[in-house]
Every structure is written in structure tokens, then in C-alpha cells.
């Protein structure tokens, strides 16, 4: 339900925060489905897939290395910093799951977080799986090959990103499930907060369902109701840089 009721976060609250592209929008980074959700006329779903990489690796590398350049030039905003404040307040009872690959949460100081869709700042061999830190851009033909492969020819390097139809790391999913189970069984307050995500992409869009079943109070912050809005007790419409600092202020009050 759309309202302006804030969650009350104290040091005994279990807090699971899920973020999406909307939390980085005020850092100047484009969201996926805002503004037509197109990149050079391509839908993200047509570029962020293993088939797209097989068909046209140069296009996919142009897409991701351009986003690397943009993310490098961006700064964390007040919403990223408010998430860090909430982490410091909730301590070991806090978990951040971000769908974002821009690295802005970590640059803001988040340490108890997982990047469920991977990171712009790593590349991975499509053959042997070896990953390397990588800040290079632009990435243009001749495209990078793995220099650790024993196969001949060596495998092509790809962004270390989880594309559509690719599985999420089971250890991440198990970690989220364990956090929800522990929080639900604690007998203490449990808050689930989704920020800046359209609730369209699974399995992340289903985490709120599991949290509700475990007894969490559920909030979301977005500019318009997400696709899974009916799973939230409270829908706070408006920018993350308005609502997250307000939640931190209410907690400190
Ligand atoms: C999987 C890569 C299964 C990273 C992304 C067929 C086969 C297999 C799977 C499927 C299938 N059909 C469907 C699926 C499931 C599929 C899926 O969910 N598809 C959707 C489109 C229906 N999921 C998958 O494929 C996942 N894998 O299921 O594997 C499997 C299992 C075992 C073995 C084999 C296979 C993988 C999903 C990961 C896909 N990768 N991107 C990258 O390039 O960045 S998804 C992409 O969308 C991004 O990661 C992004 O994070 C994600 C979600 O988008 P949002 O972050 O929500 O952004 P969006 O623009 O949509 O919304 C922005 C929101 O912010 C809005 O609500 C707006 O109001 C708000 N906002 C804007 N400004 C602000 C704001 N809020 C606050 N303040 C502001 N200022």
C-alpha cells in the first residue's frame, strides 16, 4: 500500500535490504527500464545474455565497458551512504543484496553486501572460469582472451556478470535463505526493504515473498509501484535520497 509509514530500525532489528538500478539513478547512472530502457536501440534483455555474447561479443563488450566508464565517473549518493548507516546500526543483523553491478555500494562503505548479478569490475574466462579484476574501457576488438587457459585457443574473456538465463551463485541464494530463516526465528523485529527495483527480475524479486513468510514487515522505495508491489506492506513513492536518510534519521531519533 502506498503510504509514508517508515520502518522503525533499532539495534535489535534484523534488516534485509535489496537494491536495484534506482538507487544509483541519482548518481547519474541509467536504470534498465526507465527512459525506454534501451541502450543504442537494444533492450537490456537482448544484450545481457550469453547468446548475445556468442553472437556479438564486441557489442556486449561495448555495452559493459561503456557502463564501466560511466560507473567510474559516478559517485555514491546519499541513499548509498544511508544504507551504510543502516548497516552500522543493525550490525550482524544486516544484509544487503544488490542487483547493481556498478560497485557504488562498496565505494560508499557497504561491507555486509552481496552483488547477486556480478560486478562490472571483474572479467571472467568464458572457458575456464578464471576471474580477474578489470577496470579497462573501452574494450574493443581485438577482444581480450584468457591468458591462464590451457585450452588452444584460449577462452574469450567476458564480463563477470550474471546474464539472463544464467544461474545465480547457489552460495549467494543459500546465504540469503539462511539470513531470512535466522531473522524469522529470532523473535526480534525483521524488516525487508527493497530500494529502486522494479521487482521484475527473478529470483531476486521473490525474496520479499520469503521474508514475508518468515514474518518480516516489508517496505519498498521506488518512483512507481514495483511489479511485486502487493508483497509490500508499505510502498514509499519518491527518490531513495529522500526516504533512506529519513529512515536513518527516524532510527537515530
Ligand atoms: C535465472 C545483468 C535460472 C547485470 C541482469 C527463461 C530461462 C531462464 C530464466 C528465465 C527465463 N524467463 C525468465 C527467467 C527468469 C529471468 C527473469 O527474471 N527474467 C525477467 C525479465 C522476467 N531471470 C534470470 O534469467 C536469472 N537467472 O533465472 O536462472 C537458472 C537456474 C538454474 C540453471 C540455469 C538457469 C538471472 C537474472 C539476472 C539477469 N541480469 N543484468 C547488468 O547488466 O547490470 S538483470 C537487470 O535487471 C539488472 O541486473 C537489474 O538490476 C535488474 C533488475 O532491474 P532493476 O534493478 O529493478 O532496474 P529497473 O530499471 O527495472 O527499475 C528501476 C526501479 O528504480 C524502478 O522501480 C524505478 O521506479 C526506481 N527508481 C528510479 N529512480 C529512482 C528509483 N527509486 C528510488 N529513487 C530513485 N531516484
Structure described in brief:
This protein is 32% helix and 20% strand. With 253 residues, the protein is of the alpha/beta class. The chain is globular, with a radius of gyration of 19 Å.
Bound molecules: ligand BV8
- Output the helix-strand order: EEEHHHHEHEEEEHEHEEH
Summed up, the helix count is 8
General shape: globular
Overall pLDDT = 94
C-alpha termini separation = 25 Å
Strand content: 15-25%
Major sheet: order of its strands? Answer: 5-4-1-9-10-11
Task: Give the biggest beta sheet.
Answer: 6 strands, parallel
Tell me how many strands there are. 11
Radius of gyration: 19 Å
The portion of residues assigned to helices is 25-40%
As residue ranges, the low-confidence spans are: none
Protein model, in words:
This protein has helices at residues 44-47, 50-55, 57-73, 78-90, 104-108, 170-185, 207-213, 240-252, and strands at residues 14-19, 38-39, 42-43, 94-98, 113-115, 118-125, 131-133, 157-161, 190-195, 217-222, 234-237. With 253 residues, the chain is of the alpha/beta class. The chain has a six-stranded parallel sheet, sandwiched between helices. The protein has a three-stranded antiparallel sheet with strand order 7-6-8, covered by helices on one side. Bound molecules: ligand BV8.
Q: What's the SSE blueprint?
A:
Blueprint: E1 14-19, E2 38-39, E3 42-43, H1 44-47, H2 50-55, H3 57-73, H4 78-90, E4 94-98, H5 104-108, E5 113-115, E6 118-125, E7 131-133, E8 157-161, H6 170-185, E9 190-195, H7 207-213, E10 217-222, E11 234-237, H8 240-252
Parallel strand pairs: 1-4, 1-9, 4-5, 9-10, 10-11
Antiparallel strand pairs: 2-3, 6-7, 6-8
Helix pairs in contact: 4-8
The structure holds ligand BV8.
Ligand BV8 is lined by residues 20-22, 25-26, 31-34, 45, 48, 99-101, 117, 161-168, 196-198, 200-202, 221-224, 226, 239-240.
Amino acid at each position: 500500500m502506498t503510504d509514508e509509514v517508515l520502518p522503525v530500525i533499532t539495534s535489535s532489528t534484523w534488516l534485509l535490504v535489496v537494491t536495484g538500478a534506482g538507487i544509483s539513478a541519482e548518481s547519474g547512472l541509467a536504470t534498465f527500464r526507465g527512459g525506454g530502457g534501451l541502450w543504442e536501440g537494444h533492450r537490456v534483455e537482448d544484450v545481457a545474455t550469453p547468446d548475445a555474447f556468442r553472437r556479438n561479443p564486441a557489442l556486449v563488450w561495448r555495452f559493459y565497458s561503456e557502463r564501466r566508464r560511466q560507473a567510474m565517473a559516478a559517485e555514491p549518493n546519499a541513499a548509498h551512504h544511508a544504507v551504510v548507516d543502516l548497516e552500522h546500526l543493525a550490525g550482524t543483523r544486516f544484509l544487503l543484496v544488490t542487483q547493481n553491478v556498478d560497485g557504488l555500494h562498496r565505494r560508499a562503505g557497504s561491507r555486509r553486501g552481496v552483488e547477486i548479478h556480478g560486478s562490472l569490475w571483474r572479467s571472467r574466462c568464458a572457458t575456464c572460469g578464471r576471474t580477474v579484476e578489470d577496470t579497462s574501457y573501452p574494450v574493443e576488438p581485438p577482444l581480450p582472451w584468457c591468458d591462464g587457459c590451457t585450452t588452444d585457443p584460449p577462452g574469450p574473456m567476458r564480463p563477470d556478470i550474471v546474464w539472463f538465463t544464467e544461474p545465480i551463485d547457489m552460495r549467494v541464494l543459500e546465504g540469503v535463505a539462511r539470513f531470512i530463516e535466522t531473522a524469522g526465528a529470532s523473535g526480534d523485529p525483521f524488516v525487508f526493504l527493497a530500494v529502486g527495483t522494479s521487482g521484475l527480475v527473478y529470483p531476486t524479486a521473490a525474496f520479499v515473498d520469503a521474508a514475508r513468510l518468515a514474518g518480516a514487515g516489508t517496505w519498498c522505495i521506488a518512483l512507481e509501484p514495483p511489479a511485486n508491489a502487493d508483497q509490500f506492506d508499505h510502498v514509499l513513492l519518491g527518490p531513495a535520497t529522500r526516504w533512506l536518510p529519513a529512515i536513518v534519521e527516524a532510527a537515530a531519533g
